[in-house]
Fold this protein.
Amino acid sequence: MIRLRDVGFRYDAAGASGASAPVALRQISFEVPQGGFRWLLGPSGAGKSSLLRLLALTARPTSGTLEILGSSVAQARRAALARLRRRIGVVHQDFRLLPDLPVFDNIALPLRLQHRPEDEVRDEVHSILDWVGLASRATARPPQLSGGEQQRVAIARAVIHRPALLLADEPTNALDEYQANRLMELFRDLSGLGTTILVATHNDALIRRYPAHELELAQGRLLRDG
Ligand SMILES: Nc1ncnc2c1ncn2[C@@H]1O[C@H](COP(=O)(O)OP(=O)(O)OP(=O)(O)O)[C@@H](O)[C@H]1O
Ligand SMILES: [Mg+2]
């Protein structure tokens, strides 16, 4: 489960000359039960990616309290945060694949961080490569792939270790309708198995096709939770 209480976040005004740091999130409070699914909506610049960054533990709230998978983030030590991070899967808006590593190794990364035996890694990666339709591209490097293919690699990497929390930032923006629908079926299955899922999107057709609880942001504030 995740729980936010009055969470505020501002980016450090690195190098800014006297200008105050931009406030990305203000007084955000909501909860998501384990296995819950949330659409994260709002116009460009509303704070969706910033919120996902806090939930992914790659940034810390400037104010308020954040609890992820039962741990209070402010009090957690570095090692505990690292362990927590390994239970989170993230599909970044810009994919963030490692360009010099083959597709196979990009996807295998979360399993190798868990020190899983290599034969297990091979089986898991091949089966998810089949699922995302990229079995023939296992040895390709990400820059050799189309945008949609890269996005499917990013999705495979985010779910391969069956994370307890899955954060997906515009995960369908490079996918066709068929692939987007399959991804939604995957999310539905994972949520049924107890994975908490937040998906930021501008894909109105997809939201209409898969109605679910919505968190709507505007100018860093939570406008709607329902
Ligand atoms: N690295 C950064 N440094 C400083 N400000 C940032 C940074 N990233 C985002 N911001 C600012 O924080 C605010 C929220 O941005 P964010 O990326 O969270 O929006 P978003 O809802 O994800 O938008 P989009 O739909 O375009 O992806 C914006 O005003 C943005 O300019
Ligand atoms: Mg964004």
